[in-house]
Amino acid sequence: MADTGPTDTPQGKEAAPHACCPEVYTKPPPQPTEKKPGQLSQEQVRQYFDEGYVLVKDFFKPDELQPVRDAVEDLVDELAQRMHKAGKITDTHQDAGLFSRLTLLNNDFPGAAVVLHKKGTLPQAFRDLWSNERLLNVMEQFIGPEIAGHPIWNLRTKTPRNEEVTVPWHQDNAYLSVHSIGTLQPTAWIPLLDTNKDNGCMQVVKGGHRKGITASHVCCVGGTWYVELPEDEIQNTLGCDLKNDIVTCEVPYGGVLFLNNAIPHRSLENNTDKIRWSLDLRWQHPDKPCGFEGIKDVIPMRSAKNPDLKPDWEKFESVDRTGNQQRQMNNEAGAEDEFDTTIQGPWMLRWEIVNHNKHTRSILGEDRSKNPNWTKA
């Protein structure tokens, strides 16, 4: 049960107008003249910019994603061994499989799924997937030939019936500073099994990006660190019809759901007994604001100006994104504790806090005016 406390309204919340960049999200760049593997059709590109998403059900062959599954298994095993060595658990559940082991660990040490989510480790299989040639060819269709990975990427540890891994309605821009509203940041949401309404697939509100604005969100939902986009904001501010515009995206294993950073979306509850693993990876133009300045920078991946460019993975991974987030939110102890089960970030300074819980305690009394980049757009 989340603690409740006084609301905390950002300075200028009532007076500040919405920043507006509709063309960023609705107008595609000049398309490549060369045919490349993985490129989307003209109709798929049109749908991405018109509706804010496009689902490609057969983008990968299942065997291409097997190394990613194997890497996730290794990460879970490494977490189990660390928790056992630290005396947090007595059973590592060594014989449990990919789709059940973390659930058992989370039962023994509540918050284990959050600890893994925070880890931020990029095994080679994750690096190979993020810089996959076919994915970068799609990104070129969305943002042009200069491509960098965004500092926010996630391994989603969606254990069954777990509030902390069920993300409510939001726009990705709500987690970023106001200065990145003019930067298109495409996401590839890649599940590691077939997804459906029962195990927590994604839903989007098609067309919710067209105004090019970030509607008002609130923080934090239940016992989580998530912001939420109220449905009346989706309807009244973004002009969507929730009866007709919600699309349930059941993505099969091997499929990819491409989203932009202004479309409202959420994940449904996982009501099965299997973990619904997925990765969300993001890209943008390397020279544009990423919205996470001062926390972690982008990682350049491809450049027409420098065809020999290779991602500097070691430099990128050397920066602890979640730790830096926590340090900015006065939680040095949490940043240093490898088993800390809380998450903080500067988005908590941007939106009205209507519900306090363990994740927000470190910012109680924080002077929001000290960080004007994170005031309401």
Automatic annotation (TrEMBL):
**Cofactors, names only:** Fe cation
> What InterPro entries does the database record attribute to this sequence?
Phytyl_CoA_dOase-like
Q: Where is the composition biased (Polar residues)?
A: 1-10
Q: Which UniProt keywords apply?
A: Dioxygenase, Oxidoreductase
Annotated region (Disordered) at: 1-42
> Which Gene3D superfamilies is this protein grouped with?
q2cbj1_9rhob like domain
Annotated GO molecular function terms are: dioxygenase activity
Pfam families documented for this protein: PhyH (PF05721)
Superkingdom of the source species: Eukaryota
Q: Which PANTHER family match?
A: PHYTANOYL-COA DIOXYGENASE, PHYTANOYL-COA DIOXYGENASE DOMAIN CONTAINING 1
This chain belongs to the protein called Phytanoyl-CoA dioxygenase domain-containing protein 1 homolog
